[in-house]
Every structure is written in C-alpha cells, then in structure tokens.
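Sequence in, structure out. Go.
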Amino acid sequence: LPAWGAAIVTLGAIAAVVIVGSYMTGPVFRFIAAAKLRELFVATALMMVIGIALLMTLVGLSPALGTFLAGVVLANSEYRHELESDIDPFKGLLLGLFFMTVGAGINFGLLFDNFAVIVALSLGLMALKVAVLYILALVFKIEGTDRWLFSLGLAQAGEFGFVLLSFTVASAVIPSDLADRLLLIVALSMLLTPALFILFDRVIAPRFASTEDREMDEIEEKSDIIIAGHGRVGGIVSRMLRNIGLSPTVMDFSARQLEFLKAFDVQAYYGDATRPDLLHAAGIENAKLLVIAIDGREQITELVKYVRHHYPDVHIVARAIDRD
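Output:
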C-alpha cells in the first residue's frame, strides 16, 4: 500500500478498536458478571488485550499500541473498578517487568561518552515542560503551591515515551542511535524528578506557607450557625443558608480562600476550627448548628468528639470523607 493508504488503514483500525470496543465491552462483561466468577473478568480482560495487540500487529502497528488501546477501551467500561481491583495484584509485578525491560535496552555507555550533551538536553527538556505546564496552570487558574507542584511534578518525560520510541524504531521512523539517546534523556529526566520535589518542599512551599501565616481573626459577629471550613462542601452549605436568609459564621484555615471569599462579600474568619479557644470565640456555647466541612478524617472525628462532649446541645452536621 502507498503511504496514504497505510495511514488510512492504521487510523481505521484504531478507530474501529476504540468504537467497537466501547460498545462491546458492556454486554460482554455484563454477561460475565451474571456468572459471578471473578476469574472470568481477568481472563476476558487479558484476552481482549491480547486480541487487540494481535490486531494492531496484523495492520503493521506495534503490539504496545494495541495494549494501550485495550486499556483505553477497558477504562471506558462501567466495570473498570472491578477490573482494577482484580488486576491490582499483578500491577506491581508487570510494572517492574516493564521497567526492567526498558532499563535493559538503555545504552548507558552513551551517557559517559556524551555526558554534557545528554545532561543538558535532559535539563532543557524538563525546563521546557515546566514552562509549558506553568503557562497551562496560569490559563486554568491553578494558584499558589498547587501551580508549582503541578509544573514540577510533571516535568519529566513520561514512561509512555519508552513505548513511543520503541514503536518509532520498529517502524524505522528514526534511526536506532538517535532513539538510544532519546531513551537515555527520558530515563535521566525521570531520575532527576525527585530532586524537583525536594526543591518544591524545601524552597517553594515554605515561601508560600510564610505568606499564609497570620494571626487568628477576632470574631465579632456571632451566629447560631457555625461552618468550619469553606471549601467545596462548606461553600455549598454556606450558599444554601444565605439563600434562605441565614448568615452563618464561617471559619477557614486558608488565607487564600478567605481572600477569594472577600471578592464575593462573604464574611469569613481566619482560624483553625479544631482549636477550642477559636470555637469559644465563634460562640459555640450559644450555637444551634455546627457544620464541619474541613479536610482530614482525624480532625473531623476529634472535633465531633470534642463538641459532643462539651456542647451536647449543639446539632452537628459533619462532612463524610468516605464510607467508613
């Protein structure tokens, strides 16, 4: 086939796998679920992976691409969580085998022959990814330490690069000596990633933490309703109460969150709601309702125990982190 014909066949095979697989996995796994045999889930999933990989091989593509497409198809199934739990015991073993295979194929002799060039290219790649990710964080309004953690945590070249490079070599897209250098750059970027987390923990995070250090606010306006934590859950409760004409006392331990609330004229106070003295300052002894919407299961449990013991007349509505 000419190049354009091969491209059409390739794209058609990929589209067929994704579309047909998305429609077929539901009925197949629904039939298996009726049998209530966990082993069949794993066996069927493996057969689908092998079958799709074989199909990709028949059309001249890499079996690695077939396994990737199989993962995409299975991820779109409503039985994905059952499959994840069944395959989880094998995940660590297979992941280790994958990196062992990749590591065995890396020519570390190139690192010593071209040390300065390889290191410079690896650092350049990471710097470029950090810059691009930082811009994306600005676009999607990721703020503070989250912006830097997002940018630095994803700065390395992903392990999928190993798959793509092996596919390009098998397809004779790039020469093997160039692929060896690129494999080394990918591996070195992943090796340097822990240093970026150390940089984040020791340099970047303390600077942002220092900007959020402030004294606890004096709570002047007290209400019968206290909301501890104004995140996603606390914000919803606060809006519902304000819509029916109630004005709760809101406490949050994030200075950034309070600055955000001021833009919407929400009266909130800075402080740790788990501290007894701050609860007393908020008027817990006269409150009728305490809404606990803070993060952390242990903090929620301790706060509930404290209020139940010292203020048994206060009705408590606590956020549930999980079913436990």
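Check: The radius of gyration is 27 Å. The chain has a mean pLDDT of 83.
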